Amino acid sequence: MTATPTATTTKPTIIAWLKPSCGWSNGVRAVLRKYDLPFEDRDIINNPAVREEMIIKSGQMLSPCVEINGRMLADVSGEEVERWMLANGVVSENSRTPDAPINQPCAHEMPGATAPSPLAFRR
Length: 123
Description:
This protein has 3 helices and 4 strands; from the N terminus they run E-H-E-H-E-E-H.
């Protein structure tokens, strides 16, 4: 008799379109590390072809986007990725604490962050 694969015995195929340094992207990475899941980290900032691929596959321009076993989760936080994986049996609940906040924007998008200086044009 062949054993049926479970969330704990098989690892999903995961591709994540992420920014190198961003609260949302770091949250996705933290959730995937929490569950010891291998994933392909595709840099959408330093590789325009990868960003274009993300836009085509997800149908929108916002990141992070995560594809798990062929299912695209577009513009998600780490918290949303974790919730989806638990609800769909990709992972089982564990008590580990993520090593980064899983639902936090990029630093420049945080409340109270100072806005970039406006452009000054010379005449």
